[in-house]
């Protein structure tokens, strides 16, 4: 029987599964005090001008003033399971959140209200990522090679056919290029699946790394950046280029990313560490955000401001020009 320990080993944040089943409810989040809140958040996203965060105990919050005030979303079921990822359609109204125990929630009003579409308390593998395909279908991927798709706005879900190389590997993230023509699914044991036809067909990239990848971000000219455990970051400069390992000065595991208006890339990860690249992902320097939390996601709300999610709450993205640089020998894996 698949255990929470086994599941958590390949999850976006390995220790999150234990928290997901803890029999407690976090206190309500007070306006203007988000930085002090200790709730574990895994995912941040923008739906139009609305900022949303989700995580432990099924908590979903939204803010319509760039994080100055937060409001708890309403759910028709309180499962108290961990939510791992959210995604919205181009209309910014229809969205899905997915998490442990095969939990799937849907909103049709931009995240104010959520309805349960699926939940399996027994043998329900965690779903780690969700996305809307160009066809209008929704896809979710997760632990032990689980990949499902819905053609009817989440009412029913069927297995998604993927290459045999998936086996029982955990699938940690599905990501697309800006034009939604090119897609990656990344997972454990170096798994990278690629689609160049709008996620209609998939093939496995030749293996070039044997550890876990946690996330992927598209770059210009068909390029990609993928990253995961112990500072392993790889970049493909364009669609024809080979994967090349980026220079990262310490073995920091990274889980989320954002790209600023000047093109610089920001990765967030363990030990409140930020990885900053000014050369399209070839090299990174390390800086420190507040505290010593595991940073799980980051989103920009405008050209210079943003928010970071972590296992210790939410905090504003610091001014990187004023943030301390981390010495390589001072960061532990």
Descriptive report:
The protein is mainly beta. The chain is built from two helices and 28 strands. The protein has helices spanning 4-9, 16-20, and strands at residues 41-47, 50-55, 60-63, 71-72, 74-75, 83-88, 95-99, 103-107, 113-118, 127-132, 138-142, 147-150, 158-159, 171-176, 183-187, 192-195, 203-204, 213-218, 224-228, 233-236, 244-245, 254-259, 265-269, 273-277, 285-288, 295-300, 306-310, 313-316. The strands form seven sheets. The protein has a five-stranded mixed sheet, with no helix packed on it. The chain has a four-stranded antiparallel sheet with strand order 1-2-3-4, with no helix packed on it. The chain is globular.
Structure, briefly:
Helices cover 3% and strands 39% of the residues.
The radius of gyration computed from the alpha-carbon positions, rounded to a whole number of angstroms, is: 18 Å
Question: Which range does the strand content fall in?
Answer: 35-45%
Overall, the morphology is globular
Kindly state the mean pLDDT as a whole number? Answer: 88
Helix and strand run: HHEEEEEEEEEEEEEEEEEEEEEEEEEEEE
Helix tally? 2
Q: Give a short account of the largest sheet.
A: 5 strands, mixed
Work out the helicity level.
under 10%
Number of strands: 28
Protein structure class: mainly beta
Oligomerization:
single chain
- List segments where confidence is low: pLDDT < 50 over at least 5 consecutive residues: 1-36, 329-333
Largest sheet strand order:
5-9-8-7-6
End-to-end Cα distance, whole Å, is: 30 Å
């Amino acid at each position: 029987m698949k255990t929470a320990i086994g599941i958590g080993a390949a999850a976006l944040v390995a220790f999150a599964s234990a928290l997901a089943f803890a029999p407690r409810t976090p206190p309500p989040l007070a306006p203007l005090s988000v930085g002090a809140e200790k709730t574990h958040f895994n995912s941040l996203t923008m739906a139009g001008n609305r900022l949303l965060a989700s995580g432990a105990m099924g908590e979903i919050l939204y803010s319509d003033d760039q994080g100055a005030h937060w409001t708890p979303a309403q759910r028709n079921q309180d499962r108290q399971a961990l939510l791992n990822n959210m995604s919205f359609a181009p209309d910014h109204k229809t969205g899905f959140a997915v998490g442990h125990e095969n939990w799937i929630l849907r909103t049709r009003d931009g995240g104010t209200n959520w309805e349960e579409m699926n939940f399996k308390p027994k043998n329900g593998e965690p779903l780690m990522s969700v996305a809307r395909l160009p066809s209008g279908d929704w896809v979710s991927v997760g632990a032990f090679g689980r990949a499902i798709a819905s053609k009817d706005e989440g009412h029913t879900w069927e297995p998604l056919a993927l290459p045999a190389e998936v086996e029982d590997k955990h699938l940690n993230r599905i990501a697309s290029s800006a034009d939604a023509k090119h897609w990656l699914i990344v997972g454990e044991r170096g798994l990278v699946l690629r689609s160049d036809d709008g996620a209609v067909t998939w093939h496995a990239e030749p293996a070039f790394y044997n550890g876990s990848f946690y996330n992927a971000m598209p770059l210009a000219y068909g390029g990609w950046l993928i990253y995961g455990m112990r500072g392993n970051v790889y970049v493909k400069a364009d669609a024809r280029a080979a994967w090349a390992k980026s220079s990262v000065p310490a073995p920091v595991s990274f889980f989320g990313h954002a790209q600023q208006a000047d093109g610089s890339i920001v990765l967030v990860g363990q030990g409140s560490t930020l990885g900053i690249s000014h050369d399209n992902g070839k090299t990174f320097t390390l800086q420190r955000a507040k505290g010593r939390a595991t940073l799980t996601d980051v989103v920009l709300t405008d050209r210079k401001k943003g928010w970071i999610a972590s296992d210790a709450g939410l905090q504003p993205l610091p001014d990187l020009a004023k943030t301390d640089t981390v010495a390589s020998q001072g960061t532990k894996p």
